[in-house]
Structure formats: structure tokens, C-alpha cells
Amino acid sequence: xxxxxxxxxxxxxxxxxxxxxxxxxxxxxxxxxxxxxxxxxxxxxxxxxxxxxxxxxxxxxxxxxxxxxxxxxxxxxxxxxxxxxxxxxxxxxxxxxxxxxxxxxxxxxxxxxxxxxxxxxxxxxxxxxxxxxxxxxxxxxxxxxxxxxxxxxxxxxxxxxxxxxxxxxx
Amino acid sequence: xxxxxxxxxxxxxxxxxxxxxxxxxxxxxxxxxxxxxxxxxxxxxxxxxxxxxxxxxxxxxxxxxxxxxxxxxxxxxxxxxxxxxxxxxxxxxxxxxxxxxxxxxxxxxxxxxxxxxxxxxxxxxxxxxxxxxxxxxxxxxxxxxxxxxxxxxxxxxxxxxxxxxxxxxxxxxxxxxxxxxxxxxxxxxxxxxxxxxxxxxxxxxxxxxxxxxxxxxxxxxxxxxxxxxxxxxxxxxxxxxxxxxxxxxxxxxxxxxxxxxxxxxxxxxxxxxxxxxxxxxxxxxxxxxxxxxxxxxxxxxxxxxxxxxxxxxxxxxxxxxxxxxxxxxxxxxxxxx
Amino acid sequence: xxxxxxxxxxxxxxxxxxxxxxxxxxxxxxxxxxxxxxxxxxxxxxxxxxxxxxxxxxxxxxxxxxxxxxxxxxxxxxxxxxxxxxxxxxxxxxxxxxxxxxxxxxxxxxxxxxxxxxxxxxxxxxxxxxxxxxxxxxxxxxxxxxxxxxxxxxxxxxxxxxxxxxxxxxxxxxxxxxxxxxxxxxxxxxxxxxxxxxxxxxxxxxxxxxxxxxxxxxxxxxxxxxxxxxxxxxxxxxxxxxxxxxxxxxxxxxxxxxxxxxxxxxxxxxxxxxxxxxxxxxxxxxxxxxxxxxxxxxxxxxxxxxxxxxxxxxxxxxxxxxxxxxxxxxxxxxxxxxxxxxxxxxxxxxxxxxxxxxxxxxxxxxxxxxxxxxxxxxxxxxxxxxxxxxxxxxxxxxxxxxxxxxxxxxxxxxxxxxxxxxxxxxxxxxxxxxxxxxxxxxxxxxxxxxxxxxxxxxxxxxxxxxxxxxxxxxxxx
Lengths: 170, 337, 477
Prior knowledge:
The complex is a heterotrimer of chains A (170), B (337) and C (477). Chain A has 170 residues and is an all-alpha fold. In chain A, 78% of the residues lie in helices and 0% in strands. Chain A has a single domain (2-83, 118-165), classed as Up-down Bundle (Four Helix Bundle (Hemerythrin (Met), subunit A)), CATH 1.20.120.1200. The relative contact order of chain A is 0.07. Chain B has 337 residues and is an all-alpha fold. Chain B has one domain (87-336). Chain B contains 12 helices and no strands. With 477 residues, chain C is mainly α. Chain C has a two-stranded antiparallel sheet. Chain C is globular and about 70 Å long. Chain C starts with a helix and ends with a helix. Chains in contact: A-B, A-C. The A-C interface holds A 104-105, 107-118, 141-145, 148-149, 151-152, 154-156, 158-159, 161-163, 166, 168-170 and C 8, 20, 27, 61-63, 65-66, 98-101, 103, 106-107, 110, 113-114, 117, 123, 125-126, 129-130, 132-133, 136-137, 139-140, 143-144, 146-147, 155, 177-182, 191, 197, 200-202, 204-205, 208.
């Protein structure tokens, strides 16, 4: 009962905060809302016995990425940003499409049958701790995707350097 | 997690009992640490005073012992000035973020065997997560004050904290590898078989990187560029006054104590010492803490301030590669042995 | 030593491993290479080496996450061919645009690596990661002309819409994972068949989400919006590259996921893909008519071609898939060839991207005009070019599977496409030159165009070889 209550609170808060993030006219206020949003997502991970993910969520998203966002936002001319129109073109159409998608999703999820659970049940994860289980599976079963991710990160670094640092000849 | 599990048992007496225990622990830790924060300022002024052949505070109480109390009362009753063009909600919330980020970490630090408010599995990551949030308080304070000095201070601080947090996090990976856990109590216990009951010697490079990163992370001299008074007046909190300024002050000193505590837990063997002191299980922990706090002041009194680009170079080009090297070496040694 | 005995078997993965290592070496070597032509040459050598390793690779690795079979090898061949051709036509071009950096070639190699991982993916997680690796490199390449706002816009637009598409892919994945408890494509198919949940609406939702995600990647309407702007803004050599390789990679995963994981649902997803294919052909061919910029026109043309290739997938079965692969292979040559000619018109101080720039090209530069003629004929599908062969087999496969009306629709749209392709030819041959148009030529560029032309003509005359290869490739699917 309590678990459901917590989930409902977190889910509702995440949705509401997400909407707030994109509707604030002041980008800095958006950022702060987003910070709170990330905390709620982290809390959601905690209720799922994924405390490692929760910590990483805060460290990476709130601690690093969002600070960099904030950094960029602070360098903008906020007075101009705040009067700029935030919605382009026919946004009611977009809302309509989103609502349509929502209806489709809700309708099809009504007949959703969860699949079989694997080796790592909640009990196993709780006994072994989330971090250990994640490390083990990441470096054995999912070694190949893990290595591919390293390539993606490398490309991201190269890309950032190429786009930001390369001196143009003329 | 344990806490949540416990809290979810409806109607049990244990539930209320647990809550009561936790609340008492929180109050004790909070009280003790606040007292330490207050006297850390006194300790600082005295230490630096003597290093510069002065006496430091002498007027309030014997040897100025009541000085921190007087300072606190003064700050509390001072007028709270809010800049006219500031972004008020952000201006109000910034010092609170700073303080909360600093104080929350106290929950996972084991002061002695069995005494920790929340003994969570990812304690070390929790501390890293909370310390990374400290930069929000600073950067938002700098921005919302609507002043060039504080804005520059905020930007400097954000860049500095992000850069040094990477080095700090990486330096702790070696500790995690050796102890096989991120639970701080487990980390302390894992050190018992090592020389002097510490990870200091097997993780010498990591300890070095950690020490430097921590000084930068807490914005202490010689890395106190965000509040470099000669360039930026007082940096990000130049527009703050009264108790709001006090909150930043408390946050900074709490962060110092926390970072020193993590250093003790991860490298200096936590509450263990060369011999057991009866009836005061936390004695060694606090002795080590005072020593490390003294090192902070010693460094401040000795070294001149860094230039900003040197600071960034040091972080990215020296400390991070060193920390990575340490991880590789630790991994290889651990596999071979 | 415990570690060494536990090394997973990676023999099937050799081409990718070689590619990764050599691309990293190239990235390092580039620091010491002054003349970037050498970097380009090394990139081609790397492609050749990978091609060599490709011939010996087959089997699965990492418990079915990586599949190397005829299907994947054929697609990898397309990727390598498009990589080599794109590198060849880039050498002179990026110098003219004064972005002659070695990272350009490294990023192309990484992008190709991502495509190869996609083609070999036996697991949705790997598929997604390969897709991201490919796309991330392309986002950077699209914005390579930093001083050009159009290029910046292209990069950002591609990135935002690509990320949006990725979200659909992940949502579809989470749905199917929740239903079946696995992300392995074969295991999904097995579970769906064994437990009778194949016709659960949630499965259909997941299928739709996958269609959206892959539709973005292959630029099928109505998910094509990014294509014209990105193709126009990106450096032309990159446009050539990403109109072929990533599109083929998109089709590779399209085929892999829909024929493996959702193989039992063919009737259902064909019902979704048919309107999509028709819409794609209509949008591509009709909107291309009104374009004045040749890169935009080719962008719409590439949308239309995605529509044709979808027919092969809809037809399904060995024949349909083989004809789709065959078509993509041919498309690589003719499209990069066409872009090669477009690039030739780009000289210092002259963009050469307007269709009117081609007026009277036959008089001033008869050879370039003749090459463009060949590629335009091929894109239209006029015999004896390869484009005809490709379309012929696609439509035959559709007819054989009972989609005669769909083939007819495609033929009608093909006829419409003749209007804008042949308009270029008309401009080149029947109009007087407006102004003196100089061409920027170079030896590598010449080689690329020669190879593309020969391939287009040769396959057009003697199609049996490539058809057989595609059929053999599908046989083991």
C-alpha cells in the first residue's frame, strides 16, 4: 500500500515537474525544476532496489550534465530568452498527436501480460546488492554492449573536440 | 533502502522505535557537527594566527573561546539585505541547497563501529552525489545576486567543482576495488588487514589525488578562486549578508568536515587506531579529523593562491590521469595477487 | 591466470575488432600526418582490410548478441563500398570547404563501424548502441562546416530528431522486454510464438514504435522531415555518405528485427508498412519536382527510394529481402555517383548547388554531363542501367508475393520521378550554358566516379552476379 503510494507520488511528481521544466519562461527556473525532477527519478530507482542507478542518476545527471546546462544558460542573454516565443508553429497539433499516442498506449497496455522474470529477481538483487549484480552482469553477459558504449563515448569526445576546438583555417 | 523497508511495515512497534532511534542519531550528529563547525572557525583563526605570529581571537571569553558563539549571534541578528535586481526565489534557495547538500552526507558516515544514521550500500556514491550538488548553491547564488563579482565567482566555482569531482571520484575507485564495497562501514572493516589498518599505503596515489581534489572541491586555499577576495571581493556570496551568509559559511565548513571524514574512512582506517581507547569508540575518528582539519589550515597559511588556468591544468592533466593510472595499477595488482 | 581462459570467442567479430583497432590507430596517426590525403588513403586501406576479414567471418558471438551471416555480410559490403566511395569524393571537397581535418575520416570509420554492428545485431540493446554510434558520428559530420550556419542547423536538426527517434526505439524495446523478458531477437520470436501473445495489442504497439524509429533512420514519410534540411546543410560528401550507408543500415535492422523477432507477425506489420511505403514514394517523388536545389532534390529522391526498398521488405521471404538488399547495393553506386558529380561543381567561391547551374553542362564539360546522365537514368530506373535492374527485381518480388497493385503504384511513382531526374538531363543537354562553370577534379574523385559508373552500367547489363550474391546471402537468414 505504502509502496504504491510512494510510486504514485513519484510518478505524478515526475510528470508535473517535466511539464514545468518546459513551460517556465526563465531557463534558470527550468533548470532548478529539472534538478528536483532528477531527484524524483533517483528516488524511483531507490524504490526499485536500484540504489546504484539512483546514485549515478544524481551524480551524472544532476551533478554534471545539469550543471553544464546551467553554465550555458547563464551565459545566454536571459532577458532576450524570456521574451522569446517558446512554442513554434502549430503546437495544438502536437498536443493532439501526443494525446492520440497516449490513448493508443493506454489501450494497448490494458492487455499487457508481463513476461517471465529472469535470474535476477528482487530477492537476488537485494541479497547481492544492486551494485554487485550490475557489475557482474555488465562485465560478463553484457560485455559486448559495454565495449560498444565505450566507442560511443569516444566518438562523443572526438565530436565535441572537432566541433568546438578545431581552429578554422581562415 | 533498509530504512524504507522498515518504514513500510505497517503498524509495527519496531517501526516507531526505529524512527525514534534514527531521529535521536540525527540530532546527536547534527549537534556535534554544528559545534565542530563553530569551533573549526575558532581553530582556523587561532592556527593561522599563531603561524603568522599573532594571537588570534582573545577578547571573548578565555583565550577567545566564546568567539564562535558571539559570531553566530551576530550573524543571526544582522540585517538581511536582498539586492533589488536579484532573482528572489533563487536567491533564497541557493544557500539552502548548499547547506542541505553538505549536511545530507553526514547521514552515511560511520563515526564508530555501528554508529551511522543510514548504513546504505552505496554510501560512497551517495557522498559523491551530494557533494556534486554543492555547486548548485554556489552557481545559483552567483547568478541570482545579479552582480558581476558573484557571477564570476559562481562560474569559476562550477567549473572547478565539476573538474575536480571527476578526479575525486576516480581516486576513490581504487578504494572501492580493494574493499569490494561502497558501504562505508565495510570499507573501514576491509582495511583492518592492511599496514597500520589503513588503505593509505596501498592507495598512496589515490590518497594524494583525493587530498588535492578535496581542497579544490571545498573551495579552500590555495584553490579558493571562486572567493578570491583580491579579484572578486568575496566571490559568489558577495551580495549575501546576515544569516544567509552564515548558511554558506556553515555549508563550507560542514563540507570540509565531511570530505575529511570520507578521507578518514577511505584511507586512514576510520574509527580504528593503533590501540583501542576504552569507552570512547569515536576517539580515533575525531583525532584523525582534527589532524586533517589542521592540514587544511596549514596549507592555507603556507601556499599562495593558484592561477585559474593552472588550476584547470592540474585537475585535468595531472590528477585525472594519475587517478586513472591508480585504477589500472590497483586492478592489475589485485588480479595478480 | 583466470582471465585468459575465460576470454569469449570473438572470431565472428573479427571485422569489427579490426575496424575498431585500425580506426583508433588512424586517429592517433593523424596527429603526425600533415597531408590529410594520406589519412584518406589509410582509411580506404582500412576498409579494404576489413573487407578481407569480412570474407572469413561467420557465426555468432556473445551468446547470440552478435550474428555474422550472409545477410549481415552483404550489408557490410554495402557499407564498406559506400565508405570507400565517400572517402574518395571527399578528399578534394573538404579541402575546398577548408575543413581538411583528419578526424573527418576517423568519424566516417566509426560511423561505418556502427552500421556494421547494427547489421550484425542479434539483440536490441546492441542494435540500439550500434545505431547510436553510427548516428553520433553522423551528427558531427553533418555539422562539420562550422562556419556555415546551414551546416550547424543540419547537425542540430539531425541530432534532435535522431534523439527523438531513439526514444521511440527504446520505448518499443522496453515494451517488448516487458512482454517477453528478453531483448534477444530470436528469443523474442520464440517467446511470442510459444506463448500465444503474438497478437497482443502491446506487441503491435511495440511494432509500431519500431516502425517509427526505423522509419526515421531510413527517412520514410511521415518521418522524413529532417532529411531535406539535413541533406542540404551537411557537407555534400557527408550527404552522399549518409544517404546510402545509414539508410542501408536502417533497412538492415528493419529486416533483422521484423523478419526475426516479429517474423510471425508479417501480415500485421506489412499492413502498417504498405501505406508507409506508398506515402513515402508519393512524398519523395512529388515534392522533389518543385525543388530548385539539387541537394534537396536528391534528398527527396532518397526518400522516394526508401519507399521502393520498403516494397522488398513488405514482400518478405527470401526473394523480397534479396531484392531489397540488391536494390540498396545498386543505390549506393548510383546515389554516391550523382553526389560525386554535384561535388565536382563545387569550387572555391561557387556553390554549384542550384539546378540551374547545370544548364548547358554538356557543352562545357561533356564527360561530367554524361556521367550525370548515367546516374540520373539509373535513379529513374531506365534500362540498361543498374537502377532498372534493382527496381525490376523489387517489383517482381512484390508481384510474386501477390502485391501486384503495390508494384503498379510504385511504377507510376517511378514514372513521375522521371520528370525531375530527366529535367537535370534536359538542362544539361538542351540549354545553353548561362555562365562558365568550372569543375574541381582530382584523381581520387575520378576513380570514384569511374567505379560508380562502371558498377551502374555493368550491373545494368549483367545483373545475375549481384542477384545471385544477394540470394545466397539471404539463404542462411
